[in-house]
Amino acid sequence: MNIKTKLLVELWMEARTRFSNQIAELEEEDLKKRLPPAQNSIGFLIRHIGDVELLFAKNVFGDASVKATARTVIDKRDTGQWTDLEELKEYVEASFKSLKSILERQTDEDWETLVHTNEFGTKTKAEALGRVISHTAYHAGQIAIINKYAKI
Predict the structure, then answer these.
(1) Which end of the chain is more exposed for a tag (fewer CB within 10 A), N or C?
(2) How many distinct structural domains can be found in the chain?
(3) Contact, 35 vs 58, CB < 8 A?
(4) Could you list the residue range(s) of the whole structural domain that residue 46 is in?
């Protein structure tokens, strides 16, 4: 693996532990927690992180083999359906593996390639990686606060 790619993948994996370490500690009843007036539950946020990772793997980093139906992005609101902890754990493990796989296939030169999405405009792939890192960390923080303070 190229040096820049190796370092960026390591950075992403370490940053993602802010999310993955929490998943290991959750109970199924935690998935329904939310902090009013906010609508999003922990279950929705977990699914959303997985959805976005798959979208990045496919649309930003170019893995055509990824099949992504980003329900949380399409629905734009929590429909209350994300309540199966094992299913969600499997989903975000699969999204992690998909994104990791395509990230590891990037060359050092690829990181300077420009990509465009309607959501965040034109960025280099390195900047886009920063975007997905901050997205996951942002929602991981929300999950931590909801889990700490919300009642079921």
Answers:
(1) C
(2) 1
(3) no
(4) 3-149
